[in-house]
Structure formats: C-alpha cells, structure tokens
Amino acid sequence: NAGVTQTPKFQVLKTGQSMTLQCAQDMNHEYMSWYRQDPGMGLRLIHYSVGAGITDQGEVPNGYNVSRSTTEDFPLRLLSAAPSQTSVYFCASSYRTAGDEQYFGPGTRLTVT
Amino acid sequence: AQSVSQHNHHVILSEAASLELGCNYSYGGTVNLFWYVQYPGQHLQLLLKYFSGDPLVKGIKGFEAEFIKSKFSFNLRKPSVQWSDTAEYFCAVKEASGYSTLTFGKGTMLLVSP
Lengths: 113, 114
Known about the structure:
The structure holds two protein chains of two kinds.
Chain A: E1 4-7, E2 10-13, E3 19-25, E4 31-38, E5 42-51, E6 54-57, E7 64-66, E8 76-78, E9 87-94, E10 103-104, E11 108-112
Parallel strand pairs in A: 2-11
Antiparallel strand pairs in A: 1-3, 3-8, 4-5, 4-9, 5-6, 7-8, 9-10, 9-11
Chain B: E1 4-6, E2 10-14, E3 19-21, E4 23-25, E5 31-38, E6 44-50, E7 56-58, E8 64-68, E9 73-78, E10 87-95, E11 102-104, E12 108-113
Parallel strand pairs in B: 2-12
Antiparallel strand pairs in B: 1-4, 3-9, 5-6, 5-10, 7-8, 8-9, 10-11, 10-12
C-alpha cells in the first residue's frame, strides 16, 4: 500500500492564482481531512469528509474548497491564493472517524508571494 | 468547541533524562485523547491514544501518558529519552461521540542532545 499520497511536494504561487492540492489514499478509508500547519499554531483543520459525496468545514475553511467524488481522492482547491495561505498542508485519512488512527501524507509546502 | 493547550513550545533535554510534556484540554464531556509525533522529515504518526479504561496508556517507543479526568490533562512521559526522540509532539482531543473532529494542540518541539 502507498498509504496517503500528496502532490505536489512544493509549490510557489502568486497572489490571486488558483491551484489544487491532490490527496489520495489506497486503504479504503472513509474519513479524510486536510490540515494546515503553521509555526507555533499546530495543525488546524480546514475541511473533512466522512465518505464519498460528504464534506464539511473545519476550523479554517475560508479560501479553500473540497470535494469527494470517490473514496480514494480528496483534493483541496485554493480559489484565489493569498500570502496568508503560505503554509504546509497535510492530508490525513482514517478508517471511519477522526477517532481512528489518522494516517498522514508527507505534506505540501506552499508559498504564496 | 474544545481546545487543547500544550504548555511548552520547546523542550531541550540530554539523553537519559526523563520527559514529561503537558497537555490540557477544555471540553467537559467524554473525550478521546491522542499523542501524535512528527520526526524530522517524516509523516505525523500516532504515538498513543486513550479512549476508556486504565488511565495510564502505553504507546510505541517506550512512551506512556496518563489521563487525569479531574485535571483535564493527558501528559506524555518517557523515563529516559534518546537522541532519536527528537521530534515535534502534538496532543489532540476529540469528543467521544460520533463524527466530531480532532483538535490539535500547538505542538512541543523536543530536542534531545547526545
């Protein structure tokens, strides 16, 4: 199993550009989530999904969009990038709920200039 | 909504020293508690978790944590740290019921000097 994969590993965007961060898992997990990690702030939940076709907002959803058309994939879209979105983004998946062991991807380091 | 507080942002220890990292949460109901670890250049991974039962839980690599309900605490301990324990440690809490989400603390960076 590849586990949780994320692409790209690094990305530089200009303010106002849009892009999609990809996340995929091959463990048939129902629960998937996106976090951002900023120095001194820990991990903050952006969006999550409890299954295909079901998504919900986390703590910091503004400026981000998600969809879950398949069990495997959970892309995160930045609609119009802002410097405040410079961060490291982690995707995670677990069997059914947030209480199950979270399996994290390697992260995407995003810089918005 | 619950919040999680980790008392130390940075901890520096020498090898063989004992470790205790503090974690307090704010939610008054039943919770599930976790410690995750991020070693340099690696994915976050689960260290240990508490759902119910014995409040002293053991995890991987010799780590343990004690849940003290009256203090809303879930402190992480290790009797003797190694250089390889250098990592960032995150406490996390989830309301025990249903599809509530996981809330992470801000993390504690542990540096163990050889």
